[in-house]
Specification:
globular, 3 helices, 18-stranded antiparallel beta barrel, 8% helix, five-stranded mixed beta sheet, 23 strands, mainly beta
C-alpha cells in the first residue's frame, strides 16, 4: 500500500511538471548516530532521507508549494520468520507529507495575503515539536492551518487558525521519563508493582481549535512584534496519577496525561548596533486549569500550575578572522511550566576554515539552579563542503546533568555522529 502511495505521489508531481511551470528541488541525506555512554557503541539513529519540494506559480495571484519526505527508519523490525518475508519489516521507512499549501496573493482584499493548507507557522507555541531526535528541540511539525497576513502601512498584522490540535512527537525514551516521574511520587514505604499510562487528546471540535494574532512593526532601530496565542500546550501534562493497593506493601500506579489549554502573550525585539545583533523575547503564559492530581490509598493532593513568564536575551556577532559567536540566556525551557522554570545559557561559536570549504563549530548548553551549574552539554562539530550544495559533518555530544536537572534526562545520549547532505 505504501509503495502505491509513493508511486502515486511521484506520478502527480511528474504530471504537474508537464502541465504547469514547476520548480522541483530537494535534498538527500544520511544520518548516523552511535551512542557512546558506558561504551554501548549501539546505533541510536540510522536514517537515509530523500526530500522533494515542488513550487508552482499557478497564476500571478495564486502560488502552490508542497514537500514530501521519504526516510528509512533506524533498523529492521523483524521479530518472526514471517516478518523476514515482509519488506516493511526488513527495511522499514516512513513517508511524510511535510507541507502542502496554496498562497492567494491580495485576497480577499488587496492588502491581505492568504495561505491555506499544511504549513509551518514560525511563531512560538503553534507548531508541535518533533522530538524523535531528543537533542534537536528546534524541529517542528507543520500543521493544517489558515493564515492571513495584512500589510497596513508600516505594520504587518497576521492571524492564524488551526482547526485540529496535533500533539508533539515525543522521543523513543519518553515512556522511561513518564515511568520515572510516577516512581518519584510512589508513597513512602510502598513498592511500585506496575505502571499503566494513557493519554487524553482533545476532541476534534471547534472549541478545541487554536488561533492567534501577531502585530509586527519597525520602531526606530528595533524590529518589534507582539502576539497572542489561544490554544493548547503540545507537550503532555501529568493530569492524574493514582496509586492503588496491589498487595501487602505494594501499589500499582496509573498515570493519565493530557494537553491543557493555555493563553500566551509574547513579544520580540531585535536590533543591530555596529554589526552586533541583540534580541530579547518573552512570553506571559496563562494556563487554564492545568493541574496534577495524585491519589494514594491514604491521601489525595492537587497541584495547580500558576501563571509564569519565559524569556530569552541574546546577542551575536562576527569577527574579522572568520569567527561567529552566538550566545543567549534562557529562562524556561520549551517543556517547562509554572514554578519549574530553570535557567540556561546557550552559546555557539563557528570558525570558517580553508577558505570556506570547512567549518568548525562548538556549541554549549549549560543549566544552573540556585547559582550552581547542574548540567552541561557540549557539541563540537567539523563540517566539510566538497561542493556548494553538499556537506559532510562529524560531531559528538558529551552530556552530564546532576540528578533532578533538565539536562540529566539526556545523560544516556552521549554520542558521535556522521551526516551527509546534498541539496539539488
Amino acid at each position: 500500500m505504501r509503495s502505491f502511495v509513493v508511486f502515486a505521489l511521484l506520478t502527480v508531481i511528474a504530471a504537474g511538471c508537464a502541465v504547469a511551470t514547476v520548480d522541483l528541488n530537494g535534498y538527500v541525506g544520511l544520518d548516523e548516530k552511535i551512542l557512546t555512554e558506558n561504551n554501548t557503541n549501539s546505533y541510536f539513529w540510522n536514517r537515509a532521507t530523500l526530500g522533494l519540494k515542488a513550487y508552482s506559480p499557478i497564476s500571478q495571484w495564486v502560488l502552490a508549494y508542497g514537500e514530501v519526505r521519504f526516510r528509512t527508519l533506524d533498523g529492521s523490525s523483524a521479530l518472526t520468520t514471517v516478518d523476514l518475508a515482509n519488506r516493511d519489516k526488513v527495511s522499514p521507512y516512513e513517508l511524510e507529507l511535510r507541507e502542502a499549501y496554496i498562497d492567494f496573493i491580495k485576497f480577499p482584499y488587496k492588502f491581505i495575503d492568504t495561505r491555506v493548507g499544511k504549513q509551518r507557522i514560525d511563531w512560538d507555541n503553534f507548531d508541535p515539536y518533533d522530538l524523535s531526535d531528543p537533542l534537536d528541540y528546534t524541529e517542528k511539525i507543520p500543521t493544517n492551518a489558515l493564515k492571513f497576513k495584512a500589510t497596513l502601512g508600516e505594520s504587518v498584522l497576521s492571524a492564524v487558525a488551526i482547526p485540529v490540535f496535533v500533539p508533539s512527537l515525543m522521543s523513543s525514551n519518553y515512556l522511561d521519563y513518564v515511568n520515572d516521574h510516577v516512581r518519584g511520587l510512589t508513597p513512602a514505604g510502598q513498592t511500585l508493582s506496575t505502571i499503566e499510562t494513557s493519554v487524553t487528546l482533545p476532541a476534534g471540535r471547534t472549541d478545541n481549535s487554536m488561533f492567534g494574532v501577531r502585530w509586527e512593526k519597525k520602531i526606530m532601530m528595533f524590529n518589534a512584534s507582539l502576539s497572542y496565542f489561544n490554544g493548547r500546550d503540545s507537550i503532555p501534562n501529568f493530569n492524574n496519577i493514582t496509586f492503588t493497593s496491589s498487595g501487602t506493601g505494594e501499589v500499582a500506579g496509573r498515570a493519565t496525561l493530557d494537553y491543557p489549554k493555555i493563553e500566551v502573550v509574547s513579544y520580540d525585539l531585535k536590533t543591530e548596533l555596529k554589526g552586533i545583533g541583540f534580541w530579547i523575547k518573552g512570553g506571559f503564559y496563562k494556563p487554564n486549569n492545568v493541574i496534577q492530581q495524585v491519589f494514594t490509598p491514604t491521601s489525595a493532593a492537587t497541584t495547580e500550575t500558576p501563571n509564569y513568564t519565559k524569556y530569552v536575551i541574546g546577542t551575536d556577532f562576527s569577527l574579522p578572522n572568520g569567527f561567529y559567536v552566538n550566545a543567549q540566556l534562557v529562562h524556561g525551557f520549551f517543556d517547562e511550566r509554572g514554578g519549574e522554570l530553570n535557567n540556561y545559557i546557550q552559546a555557539r561559536t563557528e570558525k570558517i576554515l580553508l577558505d570556506g570549504s570547512a567549518k568548525f563549530t562548538f556549541a554549549w548548553l549549560g543549566e544552573w539552579q540556585n547559582r550552581n551549574v547542574v548540567g552541561n552539554l557540549f557539541n563540537p562539530e567539523l563540517s566539510l563542503y566538497p561542493t556548494k550544495d553538499s556537506s559532510i559533518a562529524f560531531g559528538s555530544y558529551s552530556i552530564y546533568g546532576e540528578p533532578g536537572s533538565r539536562i540529566s534526562q539526556w545523560n544516556p545520549l552521549d554520542q558521535v555522529y556522521l551526516k551527509f547532505n546534498y541539496n539539488f
